[in-house]
Specification:
Elements (H helix, E strand, L loop, with lengths): L8 E5 L3 H13 L3 E5 L2 H9 L8 E5 L7 H12 L4 E6 L5 H4 L4 E4 L4 H12 L6 E2 L12 H10 L2 H27 L3 H17 L3 H12 L6 H22 L5
Parallel strand pairs: 1-2, 1-3, 3-4, 4-5, 5-6
Helix pairs in contact: 1-8, 2-3, 7-8, 7-10, 8-9, 9-10
Length: 250
């Protein structure tokens, strides 16, 4: 666990509810004082209502509806000045000009060690460091280290409630993707796949993350039904694994 003489106040900005809740949990466990909001506009509103101390660090998703990316970075800097460290994160690599608007960039999923390294590099004015995740292809359904970390931070029942919520969210988004594909709405299809990829990455649902990453870039043509069905099968596989693991946590 990261230790600080004085807790670092961090503003977390992420439109995906699951990713936001998991990150808030992990950051709080590391000793950060976390304020979480769900949009770029909400982040600016949080800054505007503060008359005193501003957050030391802002960690924001780069690809969100509404105010996001380099435009959000510019607005936050104009409000917060040079004393703030502004970190971007995303489930896919954005354009370089967007990355350069931030002091550092993290590719989802990332560890708290990755965050500490990027934050340290930013504070010491080193070039921004990208904590790039390994290729998720051919990964197991559930990452053991993430699962155990969750169990170390909260009661086992709460852990399984979190995973159940995540799987319900995936299935809801898959239904939306099916409708989007039927009406040839490729943008909506890819947005939902991107959200699944980010949320599943944060909880170590590696097979679902990998499949969503593939679907984010694939055509929504004739093969989309097979891809969506494959995701549903992966959801059931993860459920079975979680049932088997329920009584197997050291």
């Amino acid at each position: 666990m990261t230790t600080h003489a004085k807790p670092i106040e961090l503003l977390l900005v992420d439109d995906d509810e699951l990713s936001r809740e998991v990150l808030e949990l992990l950051l709080t466990a590391e000793g950060y004082e976390v304020i979480a909001v769900d949009a770029g506009e909400a982040a600016l509103a949080e800054m505007e209502k503060r008359t005193g101390r501003l957050p030391t660090v802002i960690l924001t998703d780069i690809q969100m509806p509404g105010l996001s990316g380099a435009e959000l970075a510019s607005c936050l800097r104009s409000r917060c000045g040079d004393g703030m460290v502004l970190l971007g994160m995303s489930g896919s690599r954005p354009e370089q000009d967007v990355v350069q608007a931030f002091d550092g960039f993290l590719m989802k999923p990332f560890t708290m060690q990755d965050l500490a390294a990027v934050l340290d590099a930013s504070v010491h004015a080193a070039p921004p460091t990208a904590a790039v995740a390994a290729d998720p292809s051919a990964r197991p359904s559930l990452e053991d280290a993430t699962y155990r970390q969750m169990n170390a931070m909260m009661p086992r029942q709460q852990v399984h409630q979190l995973y159940a919520m995540a799987l319900q969210d995936v299935e809801k988004r898959l239904a939306a993707m099916r409708l989007a594909a039927d009406r040839s709405d490729a943008a909506e299809y890819k947005r939902e796949a991107h959200a699944i990829k980010g949320g599943c990455g944060m909880i170590g649902a590696l097979e679902l993350q990998s499949l969503a990453a593939r679907m984010e870039v694939e055509d929504t043509g004739a093969n989309h039904v097979a891809s969506l069905d494959e995701m549903l099968v992966a959801c059931e596989r993860l459920r079975r694994i979680l049932v088997a693991r329920a009584d197997d946590v050291n």
